[in-house]
Amino acid sequence: MTESLASRLSQRHLLGTETLSAADALRILDTAEVFFDVSRRPVRKVPTLRGKTIVNVFFEASTRTRTSFEIAGKRLSADVVNFTSSGSSVSKGETLLDTVHNLEAMRPDVLVVRHSASGAPHYLSSRVRCGIVNAGDGTHEHPTQALLDAFTIRRAKGRIEGLTVTICGDVTHSRVARSNAWLLTALGARVRFAGPRTLMPSDTSSWPVEVFDRVEPALEGADVVMVLRIQRERLSGALLPSFREYSRTFGINERRLGLAAKDAIVMHPGPINRGVELDGAVADGPRSAVLDQVEAGVAVRMAVLYLLCAEPGQAAVS
Ligand code: CP
Question: Separation of 276 CA from ligand 1 center, angstroms?
Answer without folding.
Answer: 18
